[in-house]
Amino acid sequence: MAANFDLSGRVALVTGSSRGLGFAIARGLAAAGARVLLHGRDVARLNERAREIPNPAGILAFDVSDTEAMRDAFARIKAEHGRLDIMVNNAGVIPRKPLLDTTDEDWAAVIDSNLSAYFRLSREAARLMVPARRGRIIMVSSIMGFVARPTIPGYVTVKAGLHGMTRALAVELAPHGITVNALAPGFFPTDATEVLHKNPDFNALMSGRAPMARWGDPSELEGPVVFLASDASSYVTGSVLVVDGGLTAAL
């Protein structure tokens, strides 16, 4: 059974993996044997992070909203590795503004970075996976794809949209041996949620709402992502795996 979770020899790309949940995901895949390509925009930080995981496949520094840079990155993956087995779409932004202060430019930036970029990255990953007749595409969504909070209308919209994209790509790519699933984390302390985590009232509210009575630890995403990336999930596709300590199950 343990062999089903072994990722040895597989090449994985995790976007937004220089920090936060992305790095935890990359670390989990690497611990399971995958050779992970770390991604971000800060080369120095990526090189530092690459020293913290076993047998990294390299780093890729580009903005996910830059289509040409993204295509160049996949050309490099093909040239240097000849394959891509696991694609984890994690990079994104979460601007916090009330609806009446959100500009068209704010809205477009969130849609492009958190939804359209995921589509483009998944399409390019599939170009490498289809000939191999195997692959894993994993979207990092959020419980905000099911519920909502004020001041993040674009973020809530894209996370709900990711669940639809997950199902659409899963149906189309299944005949090629490729599964497409999503993770929906709840509240985890990261750079993106620091302002919330350090707010005592909000921290207490979320801890009180979750049946497990605490925020998640980023390391607690490692097991779920390894499951979705491995042979253990060979008959799972089009699904959204919620990792939130039971928060969305409780009133």
Strand-residue proportion: 5-15%
Strand segment count: 7
The coarse silhouette is globular
Q: End-to-end distance, in Å?
A: 37 Å
Q: Specify Rg, calculated over alpha carbons.
A: 17 Å
Strand arrangement, major sheet: 3-2-1-4-5-6-7
Overview of this structure, please?
The chain is an alpha/beta fold and 251 residues long. The chain has 8 helices and 7 strands. The protein has a 7-stranded parallel sheet with strand order 3-2-1-4-5-6-7, sandwiched between helices. The protein is globular, with a radius of gyration of 17 Å. The model has no long low-confidence stretch (mean pLDDT 94).
SSE order and pairing:
Blueprint: E1 11-14, H1 20-31, E2 35-40, H2 43-50, E3 58-61, H3 67-81, E4 86-89, H4 104-132, E5 135-140, H5 153-173, E6 178-185, H6 194-197, H7 200-209, H8 222-229, E7 240-243
Parallel strand pairs: 1-2, 1-4, 2-3, 4-5, 5-6, 6-7
Helix pairs in contact: 1-8, 3-4, 4-5
